[in-house]
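Entry 14. Ran structure prediction on the chain below.
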Amino acid sequence: WADAQGMHLVSDEIYGAGVFEPGVEHVGLGKVAAERGRRLGNRAHVVYALSKDFASSGLRVGTLYSENQPLLVAMNKLNDFCQISAHTQHALSSILSDEKWVVRHTCSSIP
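Output, structure tokens:
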């Protein structure tokens, strides 16, 4: 609908791994687009942060996925002032590269 109206759509997927019912999975905007044989395009954007799924709100680590080049250029300019520390990057790289742990951790939210 937003695309047909020429509107931008921001999908906040901060609770993406926080599914609390067995047999139910989070379906993100990227998956919805792919199932329809489409890309996100210039007006659909996905934001995600580690604060909810990984109980790390104090780290202020998040990401933006967009195919909109002018938006990405603008966000890149902000990146110089908003980088996370090298210590945080190193710790998160170590944690998130352990795929078995990530799956166990995110699945442990299911009762």
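The beta strands are 9-12, 44-49, 62-66. Will compare against last week's run tomorrow.
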